TrEMBL record, chain A:
<dbReference type="InterPro" id="IPR003965">
    <property type="entry name" value="Fatty_acid_synthase"/>
</dbReference>
<feature type="domain" description="MaoC-like">
    <location>
        <begin position="20"/>
        <end position="117"/>
    </location>
</feature>
<dbReference type="GO" id="GO:0006633">
    <property type="term" value="P:fatty acid biosynthetic process"/>
</dbReference>
<dbReference type="InterPro" id="IPR029069">
    <property type="entry name" value="HotDog_dom_sf"/>
</dbReference>
<dbReference type="Pfam" id="PF01575">
    <property type="entry name" value="MaoC_dehydratas"/>
</dbReference>
<dbReference type="InterPro" id="IPR002539">
    <property type="entry name" value="MaoC-like_dom"/>
</dbReference>
<dbReference type="GO" id="GO:0005835">
    <property type="term" value="C:fatty acid synthase complex"/>
</dbReference>
<dbReference type="GO" id="GO:0004312">
    <property type="term" value="F:fatty acid synthase activity"/>
</dbReference>
<protein>
    <submittedName>
        <fullName>MaoC family dehydratase</fullName>
    </submittedName>
</protein>
From TrEMBL, chain B:
<dbReference type="Pfam" id="PF13452">
    <property type="entry name" value="FAS1_DH_region"/>
</dbReference>
<feature type="domain" description="FAS1-like dehydratase">
    <location>
        <begin position="6"/>
        <end position="132"/>
    </location>
</feature>
<dbReference type="InterPro" id="IPR029069">
    <property type="entry name" value="HotDog_dom_sf"/>
</dbReference>
<dbReference type="InterPro" id="IPR039569">
    <property type="entry name" value="FAS1-like_DH_region"/>
</dbReference>
<protein>
    <submittedName>
        <fullName>MaoC family dehydratase</fullName>
    </submittedName>
</protein>
<dbReference type="InterPro" id="IPR016709">
    <property type="entry name" value="HadA-like"/>
</dbReference>
């Protein structure tokens, strides 16, 4: 298995494409996170809020995006993680998770991260600093 | 609108990084790496135990900031930030509180927007800060108007 230290500035971790967003995904996230805002699970409530349909929790997408780093948990940890929620994620959207090395030294690797929908639009974008153990 | 609330804090609430909650959360974000849920993997790891995913602090209770009135509907989660001193350990106790960090307004094509920055912090039993989770909430003009009526 590759170690995270091997990645060089400009290289990207392998993309991960999620299955189409399902209602069950969002019901599960609502239950697991305690965020029961009905715009994420109930069609009528989403429409009342002026949305075309239910939308994914931004934190669901952010949570998914972090898993690009989980395989390297023996080498370090996510010390800083920042995202801006750029655009909404709807049911059946196909989201791809991306991370590219921006800076690197002996102590940490800074990644530019993004979640992109099937139209190539960034729905979430930000940065993650992965701190390396000695 | 919220300038007067900057600096207000909630009273600390004791939370436990609960094993079942971590597994359920990891499942909900499709991140079922055994470091989060398998006890043997946890024991054999450098941590000597299981850890929680970086966005897990979403589940904690941070208490109530006295006097802070938020609209029930129409809030937009604009940005989110996490900072960690180390990963969270399954089974540990954390003392969590919320604080109003900032409030500012900006003119945009969608009218005057309000930006409310709330930090959710977690400390260990000795009072060492373990993580900070900062949310920027956008309050649009329609919601602002409805609140001032």
């Amino acid at each position: 298995m590759t170690t995270i230290r091997e990645w060089q500035v400009g290289q990207s971790l392998p993309d991960v494409t999620l299955p189409p967003v399902s209602r069950l995904d969002l019901i599960k996230y609502a239950g697991a996170s305690g965020d029961y805002n009905p715009i994420h699970t109930i069609d009528d409530e989403a429409k009342k809020a002026g949305l075309p349909g239910i939308i994914a929790h931004g934190m669901w997408t952010m949570g998914n995006l972090a898993k690009l780093f989980t395989p390297y948990c023996e080498e370090g940890f996510v010390q800083d993680y920042f995202v801006r929620f750029q655009s909404m994620v709807f049911l059946n959207d196909v989201v791809t998770l991306k991370a590219k090395v921006k800076e690197k030294d002996d102590k940490a690797i800074r990644f530019v991260v993004a979640a992109v929908n099937q139209h190539g639009k960034e729905v979430v974008k930000g940065e993650a600093v992965f701190a390396l153990y000695e | 609108m919220y300038q007067g609330d900057i600096g207000k804090r909630s009273v600390k609430v004791k939370n436990i990084v609960e094993r079942g909650a971590v597994k359920k959360f990891a499942e909900a974000i499709g991140d079922l790496h055994p470091i989060y849920w398998d006890e043997e993997t946890g024991k054999r790891s450098r941590y000597g135990r299981n850890i929680a995913p970086p966005t897990f602090p979403r589940v904690f209770d941070y208490g109530v900031i006295e006097g802070l009135k938020l609209p029930a509907k129409g809030l937009i989660h604009g940005e989110q930030r996490f900072h960690y001193e180390r990963p969270l350990f399954v089974g540990e106790e954390l003392y969590c509180y919320a604080e109003v960090k900032d409030y500012y307004e900006k003119q945009s094509s969608m009218g005057q927007l309000g930006f409310l920055v709330i930090a959710n912090n977690g400390e260990d039993a000795d009072g060492n800060l373990i993580f900070t989770s900062t949310s920027t909430i956008i309050i649009n003009e329609a919601v602002r108007k409805a609140m001032s009526v």
